[in-house]
Amino acid sequence: MKLETTSIFKNLKSKSASLIELDDEMLSRLKECILEIAHDVIEVCEENNVSYHLTGGSALGAVRHHGFIPWDDDMDLDMERKDVKRFLAAFSKKYGDKYWIHNDSSSEKFCIPFIQIRKKGTINRGILDAFREECGVYIDIAIIENTYNNPIRRKIHGIGSLFLGFAVSCRRFCRDRKYLLNLSDDPEVIKIFKTKIFFGRLFSFLSLRKWTQLYSKWNSKCKDTSTKYVTVPTGRNHFFREMYERKDFCESTTMEFEGNSWKIPKAYDKYLTHMYGDYMKIPKGSDREKHVLLEFKL
């Protein structure tokens, strides 16, 4: 049984009448707010010589649409591990009054193994935000980690990352189990949810926050910033399928994104082909992800 739930949440057909599917007007307003956040984040990166580039669907949008993918409702960036502390300090100093900043050291309700910047005074309450405050409109910043040149150490690094990432996910499912089990009528979805809740109980000897911090610490275990390979363990495809040669992934070029000249991986053709196959092909409407929310307010 596949226990990956990211796609499930992005395509969920819920029995809950409280879920909101964004219409075109709401989506347009959301994108404007996301762009505002991105401007502030990238401004701080450029002022402080912090690495960043658009990644995932945002990089794809830059190349194929010169902006957002029309039906998309989020933005993804990443930065190298060596710059994370410096970025957090600079961003908090300049924009701490404007944004909530969540990472692996946030509260038990919001601790996550990457960086999430959420705008205060807005609400963008997703499925995993049901019981959380500070759930404004956001962008995610994934962390690019070094990994070892030695193939055995690299394999151990990856297997450990996959295990700890699984523990984090299951621990979160166990914590939110009563709510999650009421989200769907699909027996296969419920079976996956119950399996992750079962494992979450086995991992309950540590808090979610502790598991998240262990996961981040393990991912950042390799300190050598000159290794051949890097990886984005918290990416959608996890450690091994998000592993790239440093020269391809960490070097950047600029691309237009909604009138801005922002960075994407220099070897973007290689990267996007790896992620999406024929990435210039527009998917059918039925294959496009539809995001649903519990609450939305700007």
Description:
- There is one protein chain.
- With 298 residues, this protein is α+β, with helices and mostly antiparallel strands.
- It has one domain (6-11, 20-291).
- 42% of the residues lie in helices and 18% in strands.
- It has eleven helices and 13 strands.
- The strands form four sheets. Strands 2, 3, 4, 5, 7, 8 and 9 form a seven-stranded mixed sheet that branches.
- Helix 2 packs across helix 4 (84-95), helix 5 (151-175) crosses helix 7 and helix 5 packs antiparallel against helix 8 (208-219).
- The longest helix has 25 residues, at 151-175.
- The mean pLDDT is 90.
Helix content: 40-55%
Number of DSSP helices? 11
Largest sheet: 7 strands, mixed
Which blocks of ≥5 consecutive residues have pLDDT under 50? none
